Amino acid sequence: MKETPLSNCERRFLLRAIEEKKRLDGRQTYDYRNIKISFGTDYGCCIVELGKTRVLGQVSCELVSPKLNRATEGILFFNLELSQMAAPAFEPGRQSDLLVKLNRLLERCLRNSKCIDTESLCVVAGEKVWQIRVDLHLLNHDGNIIDAASIAAIVALCHFRRPDVSVQGDEVTLYTLEERDPVPLSIHHMPICVSFAFFQQGTYLLVDPSEREERVMDGLLVIAMNKHREICTIQSSGGIMLLKDQVLRCSKIAGVKVVEITELIQKALENDQKVRKEGGKFGFAESMANQRITAFKMEKAPIDTSDVEEKAEEIISEAEPPSEVVSKPVLWTPGTAQIGEGIENSWGHLEDSEKEDEDEGGSDEAIILDGMKMDTGVEVSNIGSQVFSACSVAKLLLTLKDPIDCSLPDSVCGISQVRILEWVAISSSRQSSHPRDQTPVSCIGRWILYH
């Protein structure tokens, strides 16, 4: 999936802000984003956050045979992975040009600068050496991947501890962490990459560019340096021509930034080592900030309830009486309100027009039965002008059923009586002006007739 391109308006806005020495996140030209370092429960595992850019570093080791031309030196291997979890533009299972460039730059920065004593990784010359593997995973991409990856790699190497070994003749014994304390790596210095983004053909310069700033930049200069102001590697990309003064100015800025980052790394390592020695809690779960959705712990606020009654009585005694005395007070709780004066609800009352319609419908439902005589001995003709409602018709219909098997009467007279009652029900429902009034008479009559 390709990344969403910037619109012309966004591009012009970013360039105009850079010309005015303003950045979207409020930083100044030479400011770095906040760096946060957290360690896992195992040695050699860490997460480095450079703003919103997050990189996970993991160091592992194993005993292997050395290279033929370097029989007394250990092996260092670096691998950076860009997953779709970090950004949808990264394609899985395929090495992009950006990934190849970043891996080569990391190898030149850390392995070619001899920051780690590889000869100390030799166990038996020509037979057994330690292979140190550094795996870096980009968790979230918000610009300046190389700086975050270089910090994560050197922090993971400084935090890593390898198992101790002993050699007796041709036998190599590998001890577990419970049998012997692990051994840290021998590190000479800490090379750290500092990135500079150039705009308008080198006219404007920014330190630690964000993801949007990288899209509109013309070129990038990466300087890897240690706190002794020794340049480990330098790389320029983008095809812009830089002057000697520009490179010197960038190297001076990089020297200041590297010293600050190195002090931050050493402080984080000392704090983690102190917590582990004291037996305190450590790991990624403990490094999460409180009062977050992902937090595993919440600090409880202490509440003193010893003198609650005294305070309540004091508040009641000092309170002023209400200005108006209401016969039926309405108690409002916080977060609630009242609309209107609280009088009786009149929505349920019918309007005059609806009342007239119901009166007309009720008169239509009255049924006058004349001239009918039932098998049960009921003389309908004697009823005269007596009025039956819809329920009365339903009851008469029910009397036609056989009380034993609820079947219709077999006689011709009984069938004719059913027909007459059905005709009365249908005629009364047709005279009604309300469709809802047809149900109690006509439907009941038809159901009884055909069931």
Q: From the 3D coordinates, which CATH architecture of the domain at 32-284 would you assign? A: 2-Layer Sandwich
CATH topology of the domain at 32-284: Ribosomal Protein S5, domain 2
Q: What's the tally of helices?
A: 11
Would you list the SSEs in sequence order as H and E? Answer: HEEEEHEEHEEEEEEHEEHHHHEEHHH
Distance between the termini: 67 Å
> Major β-sheet, in short?
6 strands, mixed
As a percent range, the share of helical residues equals 25-40%
Poorly predicted regions are 363-391, 432-442
Would you tell me the structural class of the helices and strands?
A: alpha+beta
**For the record, what is the CATH homologous superfamily label of the domain at 32-284?**
GHMP Kinase, N-terminal domain
Radius of gyration: 45 Å
CATH class of the domain at 32-284: Alpha Beta
Tell me the total number of β-strands. Answer: 16
Mean pLDDT: 77
Shape: extended
Residue share in β-strands: 15-25%
GO cellular component, one term: nucleoplasm
Pfam family, one: RNase_PH_C
Organism: Bos indicus x Bos taurus
InterPro entries: ExoRNase_PH_dom1, ExoRNase_PH_dom2, ExoRNase_PH_dom2_sf, Exosome_comp_Rrp42_subfam, PNPase/RNase_PH_dom_sf, Ribosomal_Su5_D2-typ_SF, Rrp45
